Amino acid sequence: MYFKCINDHSFAIIASINERRTCVDKPRYLQIADQLIAGIKSGEYKPGTLLPTEAILQNTFSVSRVTIRKAMEILVEQDLLVRVRGSGTYVKAPKTQHNAFELSGFIEEVSAQGREPSSQVITFEIQPCNASIAQKLQLEEGQLIYAVQRLRLIDKEPEILECTYLPVEMFTDLSLEVMQTSKYDYIENQKGLTIALSRQVIWPDTMTEKLASLLNSEVGAPILRVESVGELVDGRPFEFTINYFRLHQYSFEFVAHRKR
Fold first, then answer.
1. Could you read off the pLDDT of 14-52 as tens digits, one per residue?
2. N or C: less crowded end of the chain, CB within 10 Å?
3. How far apart are CA 90 and CA 128, in angstroms?
């Protein structure tokens, strides 16, 4: 029989011929799109880097500008590239996924997705709490709280502004150094407390001048505001936090179970 006399080398030749035939059959703009995607995945084009201009890519691939634009449009549709008017086309960083139904710290969540988390403390103060915060933390108005503002960075880019308030009486030794790392690690491993849950309220908002300055964005740009009250296993609230998320880098995951 014919198939019995085909050795491994022959199969390799046939596979190579079929691969070349498939490549020839595929439109040129799709071939270029595949090469650009491969370059992004391999790290040749890193997130945030400016892609070569259309003219340069046109010369590199020896095709028309229309072909290059069709190829790049595919990557834009796949959310791999973003066009910035007057600047060029950039490789998009993958969005960080936030699971609203899983309580984990910022460092845990971001690290688990292969990104580099870091924090920059803007303010660290002790002050009397107002009536609104006192209600959230089940304190008397005027009791002392820590008021801390932190920028949360992903791959060195500011993505979240966190404003958090904690009772001084519960965390008498809380320090600036702790807030530069992991708050949850301090609470659970140093204080020996067990965190149970976080009650969250989420709604859309827009960048104020202060937020835009801190998050490297534009005034009026959309953001997501998330207010949360964290509780320990004994029911005591231990923190009230307001997070402002830049939407272009974050996606939120909600899992809804049908009521039985």
1. 444 444 444 557 899 999 999 999 988 887 887 777 888
2. C
3. 46
